[in-house]
Amino acid sequence: MKILITGGAGFIGSNAANTFSQQGHSVTVIDNFSLGVPENLEPGILCIEGDVRDMSVLKKADAPDIIIHLAASSSSPMFTVDLSGALSNNILGHIAVLEYAVAVKAKKVLFASTSSVYANNPVPLKETQEVIPTNFYAVSKYAQENISRVFSALHGMPIVAFRFMSVYGPHEEHKGAFANLVSQFIWGMEEGKSPVIYGDGTQTRDFTSVHDLVSAFELAITADISGFEIFNVGTSEAVSVRDLVDIINAEREVAIPATFIENPIPSGYIQNQQADLSKISTILGYAPRVSLQTGIRELITLRKENPIRPQGLSF
Ligand SMILES: NC(=O)c1ccc[n+]([C@@H]2O[C@H](COP(=O)([O-])OP(=O)(O)OC[C@H]3O[C@@H](n4cnc5c(N)ncnc54)[C@H](O)[C@@H]3O)[C@@H](O)[C@H]2O)c1
Description:
Blueprint: E1 2-6, H1 11-22, E2 26-31, E3 46-49, H2 55-58, E4 66-69, H3 77-81, H4 83-103, E5 108-112, H5 136-155, E6 159-164, E7 166-168, H6 181-190, E8 196-198, E9 204-205, E10 207-209, H7 210-222, E11 228-233, E12 239-240, H8 241-252, E13 259-261, H9 278-283, H10 292-305
Parallel strand pairs: 1-2, 1-4, 2-3, 4-5, 5-6, 6-11, 7-10, 8-13
Antiparallel strand pairs: 9-12
The structure holds nicotinamide-adenine-dinucleotide (NAD).
């Protein structure tokens, strides 16, 4: 199968690109390297450098069967630095990719929405809950969902939006301070730094291995989907940030205490995150396979073999 992955040099994209390439698919990546790095990609993957908002860049790719659209301003703080640039990236980029998908008659488009659209809805989070995004990142992803719904209906194009929970895994070093807490805590604690926790550490996250995400992509590619669908992807386990530090300490056989500070995020901070997986398990047959302990052990082992220097930390 010919698979085009936008943002494929980034964290999630490179894990997907490498897996699909190893499985024998023909994988092309488009990335402008605004954050991702070509070193994340294994040999055999065609990498086109450029911006997805530029149709002439998209047209350089051999017409794909499947498009996995991940190129985006991928974190809420990026919208504080450059609001119009980040909104343009996520909304105009999304429209360009969908127009391209229709032009080349792609069979299906999968793209990254986010669990951030749920804001502080009660957990477990369900796709049927009313969502009112409370930050511009979530606004941009909710816009992508709504644009996709109309696009799918107008053009008969199967489009799948994934609301990822908190994803961690290999190849996050380029994200630095934008990376998931799991990775940032591991990097800091490797240097003996105390992980900094906002508030009392009882806030929970559904920490999800990127390998489980890639398995969700695989299932969606082969599934019989005709219109627009939204699926949560997570583990359905809520782990407190306090417990996360304990797990990393246990896996590293150390006892670095956390530092607790007043939460500096003025409003909209997400207190609890936990996916309800009924829809994705029923329709796609998805089941998470990587426990947080196993995922953390993988990262610690990989970093012993190849200690790539992260692009900074948020603490
Ligand atoms: N990591 C998570 O926990 C998480 C959770 C929910 C949703 N997402 C979404 O998943 C997707 C991938 O996120 P990630 O964590 O891999 O982040 P990432 O920043 O590592 O990946 C995004 C990639 O897109 C590239 N890019 C950005 N704008 C581009 C453009 N206009 N044209 C071409 N390339 C461009 C960047 O260089 C980067 O390589 C994003 O859409 C993000 O919003 C991520």
